[in-house]
């Protein structure tokens, strides 16, 4: 459907631009020694907008796994809004914060550019290769950075308990962000291998061995 | 006819000789003979794809292969180890039946000591929830007549996480020492409504079962009562039952469970409605599916 293609083209282009801004801001922020202030708004907008992608999957606009999309997006949103934002004075100083934003933007720019082009024509082989290979160093870097930020900030979360909800209340619901943060940290243990192997599987589908210029260093993907 | 079986990446897997009138079942049996690992329930065959972004079309069961295949080629996908539908249902519904009593009878392991006694609304919620899943187990074993025999075994984990997870979540808040009940009037009315719609759902299941002779996959047009308005009154009644369950127990997790379950049932109802309309198209002596019916919500959807 033409409208869907147009919308997806616009969304993915906007996202690619957004993340390029994040990367640019990050470089500036590291140079100016205030990474958080530099990236804050471009990061918040670009990453939070990604929640739309869950909707895209559910509505069938995009052929992607709902589960892996929810896992991916919610872990990013959690790190951004529960870990980084409430404690940005501390987190902004971490090396892990900078490597995290670097990993995120370096993965997302090729990814969104690939999807944007894909609405119009078949993306060139090098773009496909980039989109399905950048995760290989960047997923572990990103996940390790996220986990490091989370772990370091745990004592602060225990103290402040951001976004927590307490009982009694009429909807009989409670949420303890210290508890959920520990659970989030533990989820990385199965989560990263799952996401990584999901991408390996995707790579096998889209990057045929013939596309990869054969050198002795290139791995045969099965 | 000779049918070539290829993998999704295009490489040839096997070639089988079939009769000219052969259908999907014959193809599956023949392929199974060449490779013992892939029993028929595990095999999925689709027509060669015309474009890479479209979902591949499955090979139809009742149409001779000769009429479906343009160049006698089919694409094979291994659906992985399978488990019977009956098996999955028994396992996934068992969780709630074990989890709720644990919370009720050993709350100290979850909430600690010095707990206030439970109130009537909590016991009623317990009975309602337990009844629902006992009913489901009994229906699975004695009432339902399944169309498909199996599903991928990974579904057991996925489905169980859903049922067991929500059961634990609802139990945690329903039996919580700081649980706040709704007003007596609302509790009484909504609980009564829950039971009414539960029974309605059961009656509908029993009727649907009576339409299908044992051991067949026959589908007949359901008649009378709510069926005159919707294709899937069983889903509608279950949605109503859960709505009233949450209105009288009032937990956010319970409402989340309601939303997810209802969305799933809506999707199933739309699919089922489409299948009925496709099968009962009024041609070749088949009945025409009544046109006024909607999928799930009378007059609306």
TrEMBL record, chain A:
<dbReference type="GO" id="GO:0042761">
    <property type="term" value="P:very long-chain fatty acid biosynthetic process"/>
</dbReference>
<keyword id="KW-0812">Transmembrane</keyword>
<feature type="transmembrane region" description="Helical">
    <location>
        <begin position="135"/>
        <end position="157"/>
    </location>
</feature>
<keyword id="KW-0444">Lipid biosynthesis</keyword>
<feature type="transmembrane region" description="Helical">
    <location>
        <begin position="177"/>
        <end position="196"/>
    </location>
</feature>
<dbReference type="GO" id="GO:0005789">
    <property type="term" value="C:endoplasmic reticulum membrane"/>
</dbReference>
<dbReference type="InterPro" id="IPR007482">
    <property type="entry name" value="Tyr_Pase-like_PTPLA"/>
</dbReference>
<comment type="pathway">
    <text>Lipid metabolism; fatty acid biosynthesis.</text>
</comment>
<dbReference type="Pfam" id="PF04387">
    <property type="entry name" value="PTPLA"/>
</dbReference>
<keyword id="KW-0472">Membrane</keyword>
<keyword id="KW-0276">Fatty acid metabolism</keyword>
<protein>
    <recommendedName>
        <fullName>very-long-chain (3R)-3-hydroxyacyl-CoA dehydratase</fullName>
        <ecNumber>4.2.1.134</ecNumber>
    </recommendedName>
</protein>
<keyword id="KW-0456">Lyase</keyword>
<keyword id="KW-0275">Fatty acid biosynthesis</keyword>
<comment type="similarity">
    <text>Belongs to the very long-chain fatty acids dehydratase HACD family.</text>
</comment>
<dbReference type="GO" id="GO:0030148">
    <property type="term" value="P:sphingolipid biosynthetic process"/>
</dbReference>
<dbReference type="GO" id="GO:0030497">
    <property type="term" value="P:fatty acid elongation"/>
</dbReference>
<keyword id="KW-1133">Transmembrane helix</keyword>
<dbReference type="GO" id="GO:0102158">
    <property type="term" value="F:very-long-chain (3R)-3-hydroxyacyl-CoA dehydratase activity"/>
</dbReference>
<feature type="transmembrane region" description="Helical">
    <location>
        <begin position="51"/>
        <end position="71"/>
    </location>
</feature>
<keyword id="KW-0443">Lipid metabolism</keyword>
<feature type="transmembrane region" description="Helical">
    <location>
        <begin position="7"/>
        <end position="31"/>
    </location>
</feature>
TrEMBL record, chain B:
<feature type="domain" description="3-oxo-5-alpha-steroid 4-dehydrogenase C-terminal">
    <location>
        <begin position="150"/>
        <end position="301"/>
    </location>
</feature>
<dbReference type="Pfam" id="PF02544">
    <property type="entry name" value="Steroid_dh"/>
</dbReference>
<protein>
    <recommendedName>
        <fullName>3-oxo-5-alpha-steroid 4-dehydrogenase C-terminal domain-containing protein</fullName>
    </recommendedName>
</protein>
<comment type="similarity">
    <text>Belongs to the steroid 5-alpha reductase family.</text>
</comment>
<dbReference type="GO" id="GO:0016020">
    <property type="term" value="C:membrane"/>
</dbReference>
<feature type="transmembrane region" description="Helical">
    <location>
        <begin position="185"/>
        <end position="204"/>
    </location>
</feature>
<dbReference type="InterPro" id="IPR001104">
    <property type="entry name" value="3-oxo-5_a-steroid_4-DH_C"/>
</dbReference>
<keyword id="KW-1133">Transmembrane helix</keyword>
<keyword id="KW-0444">Lipid biosynthesis</keyword>
<keyword id="KW-0560">Oxidoreductase</keyword>
<dbReference type="InterPro" id="IPR039357">
    <property type="entry name" value="SRD5A/TECR"/>
</dbReference>
<dbReference type="GO" id="GO:0016627">
    <property type="term" value="F:oxidoreductase activity, acting on the CH-CH group of donors"/>
</dbReference>
<keyword id="KW-0443">Lipid metabolism</keyword>
<feature type="transmembrane region" description="Helical">
    <location>
        <begin position="161"/>
        <end position="179"/>
    </location>
</feature>
<keyword id="KW-0812">Transmembrane</keyword>
<dbReference type="GO" id="GO:0042761">
    <property type="term" value="P:very long-chain fatty acid biosynthetic process"/>
</dbReference>
<keyword id="KW-0472">Membrane</keyword>
């Amino acid at each position: 459907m033409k409208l869907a293609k147009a919308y997806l083209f616009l969304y993915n282009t906007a996202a690619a631009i957004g993340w390029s801004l994040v990367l640019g801001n990050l470089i500036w922020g590291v140079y100016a020694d205030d990474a958080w202030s530099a990236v804050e708004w471009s990061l918040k907008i670009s990453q939070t907008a990604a929640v739309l992608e869950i909707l895209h999957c559910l509505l069938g606009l995009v052929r992607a796994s709902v589960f892996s999309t929810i896992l991916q997006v919610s872990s990013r949103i959690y790190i951004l809004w529960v870990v980084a934002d409430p404690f940005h004075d501390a987190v902004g100083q971490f090396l892990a914060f900078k490597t995290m934003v670097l990993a995120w933007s370096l993965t997302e720019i090729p990814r969104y550019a690939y999807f944007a082009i894909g609405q119009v024509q078949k993306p060139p082989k090098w773009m496909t290769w980039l989109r399905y290979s950048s995760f290989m160093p960047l997923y572990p870097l990103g996940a390790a950075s996220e986990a490091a930020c989370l772990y370091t900030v745990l004592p602060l979360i225990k103290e402040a308990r951001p976004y927590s909800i307490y009982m009694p209340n009429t909807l009989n619901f409670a949420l303890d962000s210290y508890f959920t943060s520990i659970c989030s940290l533990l989820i990385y243990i199965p989560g990263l291998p799952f996401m990584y192997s999901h991408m390996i599987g995707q790579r096998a589908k889209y990057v045929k061995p013939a596309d990869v210029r054969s050198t002795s260093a290139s791995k045969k993907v099965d | 006819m000779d049918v070539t079986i290829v993998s999704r990446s295009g490489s040839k897997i096997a070639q089988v000789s079939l009769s000219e009138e052969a259908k999907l079942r014959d193809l599956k049996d023949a392929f199974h003979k060449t490779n013992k690992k892939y029993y028929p329930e595990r095999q999925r065959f689709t027509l060669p794809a015309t474009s890479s972004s479209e979902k591949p079309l499955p090979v139809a069961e009742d149409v001779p292969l000769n009429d479906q295949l343009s160049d006698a080629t089919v694409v094979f996908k291994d659906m992985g180890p399978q488990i019977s539908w009956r098996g999955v249902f028994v396992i996934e519904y068992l969780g709630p039946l074990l989890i709720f009593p644990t919370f009720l009878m050993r709350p100290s392991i979850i909430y600690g000591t010095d707990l206030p006694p439970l109130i009537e609304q909590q016991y009623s919620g317990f009975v309602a929830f337990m009844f629902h899943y006992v009913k489901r187990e009994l229906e699975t074993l004695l009432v339902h007549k399944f169309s498909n025999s199996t599903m991928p075994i990974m579904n057991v984990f996925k489905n169980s996480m859903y049922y067991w997870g929500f059961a634990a979540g609802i139990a945690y808040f329903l039996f919580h020492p700081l649980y706040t009940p709704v007003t007596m009037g609302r509790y009484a009315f909504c609980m009564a409504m829950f039971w009414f719609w539960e029974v309605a759902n059961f009656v509908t299941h029993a009727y649907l079962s009576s339409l299908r002779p044992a051991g067949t996959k026959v589908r007949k047009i359901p008649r009378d009562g709510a069926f005159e308005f919707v294709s899937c009154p069983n889903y509608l009644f279950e949605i109503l039952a859960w709505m009233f369950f949450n209105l009288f127990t009032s937990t956010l997790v319970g409402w989340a469970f309601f939303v997810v379950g209802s969305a799933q049932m809506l999707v199933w109802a739309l699919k089922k409605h489409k299948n009925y309309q496709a099968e009962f198209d009024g041609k070749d002596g088949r009945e025409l599916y009544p046109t006024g019916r909607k999928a799930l919500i009378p007059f609306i959807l």
